[in-house]
Specification:
The complex is a heterodimer of chains A (97) and B (155). Chain A is mainly alpha-helical and 97 residues long. Chain A folds into two domains: 30 residues, no CATH class; 53 residues, Ribosomal protein S18 (30s Ribosomal Protein S18, Irregular). Chain B is built from four helices and four strands. The longest helix of chain B is centred in the last third of the chain and has 26 residues. The chains are: A mainly alpha (97), B alpha+beta (155). The interface between A and B is medium-sized, with 18 and 27 residues.
Chain lengths: 97, 155
């Protein structure tokens, strides 16, 4: 009971040691992902370049979300159209199972 | 006359298609484009390629790409005609001039921004060969400590 209480208080009023410990575990040192196309200065994302698109198509054949790949909004949009076009002419699969 | 735009026409033929059949289809496409006084800028034959999925029982296909400068009405006609050909198992017409223009513009903008930046700092507008090689070395150095940092974080 007492332990439970102390923990509850720690969460609210900021028990220094515990808070730091928690934060340390939670904020994993994940490197901030950068947009590949911005970094490598790729202006045109063409549908014919399968090698360029492949890293953004995981096994299942879906388009990888931005939150995972770290691609910026502008380039994700261009990437999306490129992948969809590539799918139409069977350069890239719609689905794989 | 209607404005001339750049399009890419790409189509897939069955893998067993002979060279002559491919050539004949190409002349047919040329005939259509000529009627609209369009010009074929480039023709690429990619040859046999594996398809990402099966189309009409075919697992492979011969890809042919044409880059055409022509009016918009031409695309409708190409689309209609290619749909009729039994030989063509899949085709697509895409307008590319706008996208290429956007890409070119951003490339030019980046270049001029870099030049302006360099001039402000009193450097020659173009990076010299020496600088380029040094930048490569800098990048290599950067990788070292970063990797170390990651390792500690994982532990």
């Amino acid at each position: 009971m007492s332990e439970f209480e102390s923990r509850g208080r720690g969460g609210r009023s900021g028990d220094k040691d515990k808070k730091d410990d928690k934060g340390g575990r939670r904020t994993f040192f994940r490197r901030r992902r950068m947009c590949k196309f911005c970094v490598e200065k790729i202006d045109y994302i063409g549908y014919k370049d399968v090698k360029l698109l492949a890293p953004f198509i995981p096994e299942r054949g879906k388009i990888q979300p931005r939150r995972i790949s770290g691609v910026c909004a502008t380039h994700q949009r261009a990437l999306q159209t490129a992948i969809k076009r590539a799918r139409q002419i069977a350069l890239v699969p719609y689905t794989t199972d | 006359m209607s404005t001339v735009r750049q399009y890419e026409l790409i189509y897939i033929l069955p893998p067993e298609t002979t060279e002559e059949a491919v050539a004949e289809l190409q002349t047919q496409v040329e005939a259509i484009t000529q009627r609209f006084s369009a010009t074929i800028e480039k023709t690429e034959n990619w040859g046999r390629r594996k398809l990402a999925y099966e189309i009409g029982g075919n697992r492979e296909g011969v890809y042919v790409l044409h880059v055409i400068n022509g009016p918009a009405e031409m695309t409708a006609e190409l689309d209609r005609r290619l749909r009729v050909f039994d030989l063509v198992i899949r085709h697509m017409v895409v307008r590319v001039d706008e996208e290429l223009a956007v890409a070119e513009r951003s490339r030019v903008r980046r270049k001029s921004a870099m030049t302006a930046r360099r001039v402000r700092r009193g450097l020659p507008p173009e990076p010299t060969e020496q600088e380029r090689s040094r930048r490569q070395e800098d990048d290599d150095d950067l990788d070292g400590p970063e990797m170390g940092f990651r390792e500690r974080g994982d532990r």
